[in-house]
Design a protein that fits this description.
single chain, rod-shaped
């Protein structure tokens, strides 16, 4: 029984050890697409912040 379980854990594959399976690659691509969708352009943030920072210049509050 133990030999059967041990042999089932060692499946033959053409992929080298540590290679990403097709399913894992798809999951990684989906995660990357989600991060890209939720990302913000830094230039857009700077354009929104810059006008406000100019008007707030002056003496610091006391």
């Amino acid at each position: 029984m133990g030999a059967l379980l041990a042999s089932s854990a060692c499946s033959r594959s053409d992929a080298p050890p540590g290679a990403v399976t097709a399913d894992e690659a798809q999951q990684l691509n989906d995660a990357a697409a989600m991060l890209d969708k939720n990302s913000v352009d830094l230039d857009q943030i700077n354009a929104e912040i810059a006008p406000n920072s100019v008007t707030n210049q002056g003496d610091p509050p006391r």
